[in-house]
Amino acid sequence: MPTISAQSPPTARLLARKLFVLWIACECMSFVAGAALPTGGSCPIPAKEFCYVRHGQTSWNAENKVMGNLDIPLSELGERQARTAIESLRGVHIQRVICSPLLRAKRTAELIAENYRLPLQVNECFKEANWGAIQGHALPENYNAIFLDWRNGIDPEGAESIESVKKRLIPGMQEALAEDTVPLIVAHGGIHWALMQVLGLSYEDAPVGNCEVVRFSPTEQGGWAACPLK
Fold first, then answer.
1. DSSP one-letter code for 55
2. d(CA 101, CA 171)
């Protein structure tokens, strides 16, 4: 730290004061830079392990129709897929199941919860996005570009934005991770895309098909890791 002497000339004292202010600023910057961030960095989701499952297949999935927040039930194949997800979860000590209120997710969650004799909670925060003008129709040929645009903030006409989805998803995740237990979230593709953005991950790190399971864990570096379970 620079020193200021009472006997120093005025110009020297002024220079010393400026150096002192600069030193304080540097010290503050050093403190902020060296301060330990909470696990998970700036991510608003608590740094605790959880698993995620997308719902099983519906007849609309098979017909390549856009469901969005329309309430389409599981097909017979979707119910079989849910039982496959049960096998994928064998090595994970899940203790609660939380799901979207839509039938396809809720039924998937019920089958898993019944198998493991776990409590089931329905949470509106995990409801699929409204896809606006494309909802209820066959997937357009350029659907990959449409969904990529949506993840980048360009919405189909009348659709719920990804920012809106994230805004309701975050409190749902905070509630799900408030307890010291490992929850399983059963929801949708759009919710998964929004979740990956919130966690600072790329969708390509862990894409999810129907009833595919992803295990999310906080890393020592303050980020998140996504591990598909087969």
1. P
2. 16
Residue 138 DSSP SS3 = strand
Q: Is the pLDDT of residue 51 over 90?
A: yes
Q: List, in order, residues 6 or more apart from 67 with CB less than 8 Å away.
A: 58, 60, 61, 104, 128, 131, 135
CB contact at 8 A, 51 and 113: no
Residue 55 annotated among the catalytic residues of the structure = yes
Non-local (6+) Cβ contacts of 194 within 8 A are 129, 162, 165, 166, 169
Q: Given this model, what pLDDT does residue 113 score?
A: 98
Question: Of the listed 87, 110, 128, 179, which one is catalytic?
Answer: 128
Give the model's pLDDT for residue 92: 93
pLDDT tens digit sequence for 52-106:
999 999 999 999 999 999 999 999 999 999 999 999 999 899 999 999 999 999 9
Question: pTM above the 0.90 mark?
Answer: no
137 in catalytic set: no
Sign of the Cα torsion 200, 204, 206, 207 reads positive
Pairwise CA distance, residues 175 & 201, whole Å = 21
Residues 6+ apart with CB under 8 A from 37: 222
Beta-strand ranges (E) seen in 58-138 are: 96-99, 120-122
Query: How many secondary structure helices (H) and strands (E) does the chain include?
Result: 7, 6
- Annotated catalytic residue, options 55, 188, 192, 212: 55
Name the one residue in this structure whose structure tokens are 């329309």.
70
- Say what angle helices 103-116 and 76-88 make with each other, to 10 degrees: 40
